[in-house]
Amino acid sequence: MTMPSPDERMEQLQRAVEDYPYRVRRLTEDAAEAAAQKVTGEAGNGQVVVTVTGGGAIDSVRVTYGALRELDNRTLADRVMAAVNDGLERAEALMPGAGEPDDAAAEEALHRFEQRMDDLLYELDYIDRKLNRIDE
């Protein structure tokens, strides 16, 4: 495998810089779209159903008559909390980046990026030294 030339590396860097505003705009739009969606969480086999927006706001809580009649206040509170947590987890899954790789994969990607940047800086230093020799 051959190393890309300094010009190729500069082109790659330039493309990445030019692409950055588009990616930010797209992620912002995706986040707004996800925040507008609604998901439900439930507990107790549907005894408690909570509707949550993609942004994490609780929109509604529905408790069945049977749950109100049969459950003590502590158990009912536990079911409401479980339904809310279920809804919030589902809402979080809607957000951009929810399926991101785990920390180990992210660390590896960061390491590869840093290595490439180090290689690029080395090449740029090499070019700078060559240019300085021409000026002499």
What order do the helices and strands come in, and which of them pair?
Elements: H1 6-36, E1 38-43, E2 48-53, E3 58-63, H2 65-70, H3 73-94, H4 103-135
Protein name: YbaB/EbfC family DNA-binding protein
GO molecular function, one term: DNA binding
Pfam families: YbaB_DNA_bd (PF02575)
Written account of the structure:
This protein has 136 residues and is of the alpha+beta class. The chain has 4 helices and 3 strands. It has helices at 6-36, 65-70, 73-94, 103-135, and strands spanning 38-43, 48-53, 58-63. It is rod-shaped and about 90 Å long. The model has no long low-confidence stretch (mean pLDDT 81).
* The CATH architecture of the largest domain: 2-Layer Sandwich
Question: What is the CATH fold-level name of the largest domain?
Answer: Ybab, Chain: A
Shape: rod-shaped
What is the count of structural domains? 2
Quote the beta fraction. 5-15%
Class by helix and strand content?
alpha+beta
Q: What is the quaternary state of this protein?
A: single chain
Largest sheet: 3 strands, antiparallel
Low-confidence stretches: none
